Amino acid sequence: QVQLVESGGGLVQPGGSLRLSCTASGFTISDYWMGWYRQAPGKEREEVAGISSGATSTTLTDSVKGRFTISRDNDKNTMYLQMNNLKPEDTAVYYCRCGVHYWGQGTQVTVSS
Q1: What is the DSSP code string of 24-37?
Q2: Which own/partner pairs from 29-35 qualify as long-range (CB within 8 Å, at least 24 positions apart)?
Q3: pLDDT tens for residues 29-72?
Q4: What is the rounded distance in angstroms from the CA atom of residue 83 to the CA atom of residue 23?
Q5: d(CA 6, CA 1)
Q6: Using one digit for the tens of pLDDT, what is the confidence trace for 66-112?
Q7: I need a labelling partner for 100 at 20 to 30 A (CA). Which of 24, 37, 41, 52 fits?
């Protein structure tokens, strides 16, 4: 069964950190570009970060540059998003994507005092 499962979301105070993980099963991620997306209530889903198959190239949307880091471990079939200095506007459901077709179910991140 092909599946992407996100974990690591939760409630954190402004300025705090979280590390999201996205683990694939049923296929190998090593041949695919992967990305993190987020969707806040009432807003469209947006791409937050992307990483090439060999992790040689990464992209970050401007609002998270200097705070978020995307990485992957192909041996563990897992991608990560390290989120530091979180802000209330980072509150959203975070989704991982692998290639064109595969999406995770999402994990909630809430930044609030």
Answers
A1: EESS-GGGS-EEEE
A2: 29/53, 29/72, 29/74, 29/77, 29/78, 29/79, 29/98, 30/74, 32/98, 32/99, 32/102, 33/98, 33/99, 34/72, 34/79, 34/96, 34/97, 34/98, 34/99, 35/70, 35/96, 35/97
A3: 999 999 999 999 999 999 999 999 999 999 999 999 999 999 99
A4: 17
A5: 16
A6: 999 999 999 999 999 999 999 999 999 999 999 988 999 999 999 99
A7: 41
Residues 6+ apart with CB under 8 A from 23: 4, 5, 7, 76, 77, 78
**C-alpha closest to that of 72 among 34, 104, 103:** 34
